[in-house]
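With this grant's support, the team has encoded backbone shapes as discrete tokens. A representative record is reproduced below.
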Amino acid sequence: MIEIENITKHFGNKAVIQNVNFKVEKGETVGLYGQTGAGKTTLIRVLTAYMFPSSGKLTILGYNILSHSHEIRRRVGYLPQGVSLYGDMTVENYLTFVARLHRVNDRHRRVCQVIEEFQLSRHTKTLIGKLPLDLHRRVGLAQAVVFNPEILILDQPTAGLAPDQIMEIYQFIKPLTNQYTVFLSTHTWCDVEQFCDRVLMMDKGRIVGEKRLKMSQRRVEPRKVAEPGAISILAEALSISINPIFR
């Protein structure tokens, strides 16, 4: 469903993504794990056709990003980092707007369905800009799936949330991994343990490792991982030496 071949992205003379290669098959939940500044969000923006690569080939659902970016956006649900939504719209109006944009049949029914699914019934008339971060994130998830996409891409879905809020958002994300092909980025290893069948490790714009996770490696409780400790967790998870990759 997603196939990346030698993707590189430059900003000026700096290569932010370098020769990235991977595939995501239908039904998989794949994590992209790395520290802040590793290039995760840039890669996500390329995957969602909001940014074009400098070189390489990317196809999603058989569509080439350079020639069919609009078709890709129509079929991929996207939760951006920080979830930049229309703060001056109510929750209900915004979800209706997204559904209309994607030409969803029976929009009212579908909007009501996602409002119930993400427990937003008490907030339908609230301006999005007035919502706390955890509810804002739920609205972001709702808009990503309201048009029934074929692929769901989540950019750091738990970033900035308190531990109890992370546990809550997990309850909303988990069912999505059973309904959609999911690709998510994170700098928190617990997110990987919760959802992913497979994890790609990113550092300095490169994919430096890959590991398939077993069900026994999944955790229930969220665990806050400090940035320095994340490197050790990464090395342990991938069963690789830390020195050749992180300097």
